Amino acid sequence: MRTFLLILLFSSMLLLESSCVGLRQINELAIVTAVGIDTGNKPGTVKLSAQIIRPADARGQTGAPAGGTGQPIYSISAEGNTIFDAIRNLGRFSSRRVYWAHNFMIVLSESYARQGIRDMVDFFTRNHELRMNTWVAVTSDKPDELISTITGIEVVPGEAVDKLFRNNQVVGLAPGSNMMNLEEALLSTSAQPVVARLQLQPRGISNKKPEEHGSLKQVELAGAAVFREDKMIGWLTPKEARAALFFLEKLESGIEVINCPNNENRRLTLEFKNAHMSVKSFYENEKPRFQIRLKSAADIVESGCNVPVEQLRDAADASLEKLMKQRIENVLDKAQKQHHSDFLKLGDIFRNKYPQEWKRVGKDWNQIFAEAKFEIETNVDVKSAVVKAAGDGIK
Amino acid sequence: MKTFRISNGMFIAMIVNLIFVKAIGVTQGELARVIGSDMWIATFIGMLQGIVIMYITYLALRKTPDRDFISLGSAMLGKWFAALVALVIFVFYLAAFGPIMITYVYHLQEYFLPEAPISLFIIASLLVGALGCYYGLEVIARIALVGLLFIFFLNGLIIIGSTHEFDMRNLLPVLESGLPQTAAASLHFDADWAMATMLAALIYPHVKDVKKYGAKLGIIGIVTSGLIIVIWAILEGAVLSGEVTAQYTLSCMKLARNAHIGNFLQRYEMIMIALYSISALFEVMFCVYATSVCASRVFALKSNKPMIIPVCLILGAFGYWVVDDHFWALKYLEFYWPRVALPIAFGLPVLLLLLRLLFGKKLQKAKPAT
Fold first, then answer.
1. Which residues of B touch A101 (CB under 8 A)?
2. Where in B117-262 does DSSP place strands (E)?
3. N or C: which end of chain B has fewer CB within 10 A?
4. B234 near B171, Cβ under 8 Å?
């Protein structure tokens, strides 16, 4: 017994040595906060850019702290035959080991997205380090430039874009596409992926040269890229992306501007709230039909109409209903006629209601979806003038 | 034989721990590959079958509550039959060590220590298993109680971290593959509760109030496990979708990687793994216990302790052989393991119940088990 216990004790002590297995000290890591993926210069290659945080310079202050460079990020890029190959090539000149666990976003160039993203999704979902709520976006600009552009008041660009995505429902002009919902849509047989669009816009004003408006580029989150299978096939404008959000993310609120009923040169701003979309599917004569109903309340948040708001109410209801219906029709038209891609997940609704029929038509869904009929009904009720009195005579 | 007793709660905790680890870890992925998001229904159907077999196991032992399956076999057909029963249960738990190691090793190695050698995980777990087994069933049962508490914490964490991504549409349409195929898929979950019914076959005589509560304790154990596991099946289906769940060996880790509480508490799968590891180590402990008890009965030894090291060596070699190659591991898990587990889990209790009905009078004359 004594011998057995001694063997056990010494064996346990040997196991303590395992604490060094896979050891990675934090000061030896290159912590990636954003990744850009583009097509390489040589055909068939991938160019990968990584935005790596400089801990000494990214402590929430601008300017160069003692011992720092003043640059909160260090951006590098490398090419390879595959993403993993490009990452390994980063290791040729990165002094630290690349670490993915704190990555905020993956930005794909349009040319890369049009070639197909299946291997990108596979790589990042196969990698245990990456968070599944890492944002994914497509850009028509250069991804390496985009991920290196300091946006907003954040020190680290990746963190700034992360916050744009987190608040995407406030503006409501782009989907919150992350690795989790992208993988789900890519694997689904009844839905197609849709990914947010990021672009560089000359929006910033330099404090040193305020007269040069727009001298600083900022990253803008607006619009979306539409896919069929794993290949990008086109863009959605920000307004179309908003309509898509009713289907995809149950968008509840947003701002819409309409013309004043009494004067087409003046504007009335409405904030729709508690919007709720219900979609029902039907299968008649071997053709699907969808009944789409959008119901919402709205507030008058800005009026330049110079007439009492009570007189505007009915006209505002009708105008917003018409506008929303038009938006939905536009995005459906784009999905059905232009892109032949069911990125609005209507196939999911059909499949859930008609599982037996889905087995028959599912494989040709994009063609069948193109022939589907839609009935759209919008119902808006303007209910409030916010803090101003909604009574008679108050403008 | 009855030198110690384990409480009713410990017995239930042992059943839950033994089923839970593999059922949430790898079984849901197996089910998703067969029937998509209907995995929760298959788990539920499997649970009902588990209740039936647990009841049959109780019926086989009801008249002789001081005997386990091996000593029951001895009383009915003699020591050779008892040795055969012991050998069958030994083979069962040896085969069960494969899925247990797949679950345990891949969780730790793939997600936390990819550079650590497989042997490290196997040796470390067997050392803990051997130690627990050396101190006896009561210690193992107490660990199961702690494991059960951690399972509740684990379920709480995953529910809080996942419900904001819950999409009911992913669980629809219900029974898309049809009821027969869903029922057939439930056999994968049957292979999980099989470990629990075999556990009951060995330790029923040590349970404190088995005479008072009868089959209720075992059935409560199966139902509790089923309900705890169904939560994971529903979450994996609704949050990840059936298609995504099917892509992963360890679908529960995929769900854990997605879970987050607010913006600041992210990537807390390490906490979940710490909670999960107690149950995984309990499984290893019980495997060592069951195989050592069966081996000692085959060789007619009075104590299982001399067999602990030999069975650890056998289990370790077998476990390494199973997990070394992922392709083989998955084939073993989905093809070979159910073919070993299910005939034994369904067949042995039914066979012993039939024999007990045939040899009832002989059993009454037999001396009480010692």
1. 267
2. 260-261
3. C
4. yes
Cβ-contact A265, A291 below 8 angstroms:
no
Beta carbons of A241 and A226 less than 8 angstroms apart: no
B245 to chain A, minimum CA–CA distance in Å? 10
ipTM over 0.90? The verdict is no
CA A337 to chain centre: 24
- The two structure tokens encoding residue B57: 């196991």
Lookup: tokens for B352: 């012993």
CA distance B175 to B41: 8
Question: Which residue ranges make up each domain of chain A?
Answer: 248-395
CA dist B113 and B105 (Å) reads: 10
Query: B293 vs B74, B208, B251, B306, B340, CA distance in Å?
Result: 15, 20, 33, 10, 20
pLDDT tens digits, residue range A215-250? 678 888 889 999 999 999 999 999 999 999 999 999
Position B320 scores a pLDDT of 97
In sign, the C-alpha dihedral spanning B332, B42, B28, B268 is: negative
What count of CB pairs under 8 Å joins A to B? 69
Positive or negative CA dihedral for A325, A331, A332, A337?
positive
Answer whether A21's CB lies under 8 Å from B113's CB.
yes
Res. A23: pLDDT tops 90: no
**CATH number for the domain whose boundaries are B8-362:** 1.20.1740.10
Residues of chain A in contact with residue B309, where contact means CB-CB under 8 angstroms, are: 4
In CATH, which superfamily holds the domain spanning A248-395?
Answer: Nutrient germinant receptor protein C, domain 3 (3.30.300.210)
Work out the minimum CA distance from B368 to partner chain A, whole angstroms: 31
CA distances from B134 to A148, B202, B208, B247 (A): 60, 17, 21, 40
Rounded to a whole number, what is the distance in Å from the CA of B194 to chain A's nearest CA?
31
- Rounded Cα distance between B284 and B130, Å, is 9
Q: How far apart are CA A154 and CA A61, in angstroms?
A: 9
pLDDT tens string B237-294 = 999 999 999 999 999 999 998 888 887 787 788 888 889 999 999 999 999 999 999 9
B288: its two tokens: 């060592």
Contact A355 B120 (CB under 8 A): no
pTM: 0.89
Q: Can you tell me the distance from the alpha carbon of A163 to that of A379, in angstroms, rounded to the nearest whole number?
A: 32
| Burial of A264: CB neighbours in 10 Å, binned 0-12, 13-18, 19+ | exposed
Buried b vs exposed e over B18-42: b needs ≥16 C-beta within 10 Å? bbbbbbbbbbbbbbbbbbbbbbbbb
3-state secondary structure of B292: helix
Look up residue B28 and give its two tokens: 């849901």
Quickly tell me which residue has 């604490």 as its tokens.
A19
SS3 at position A163: helix
| Residue in B closest to A22 by C-alpha | B115
Q: In chain B, where are the structural domains located?
A: 8-362
Sheet with A373-384: list strands edge to edge: A254-259, A267-284, A287-303, A373-384
Query: What φ, ψ does residue A287 adopt, rounded to 5°?
Result: -130, 140
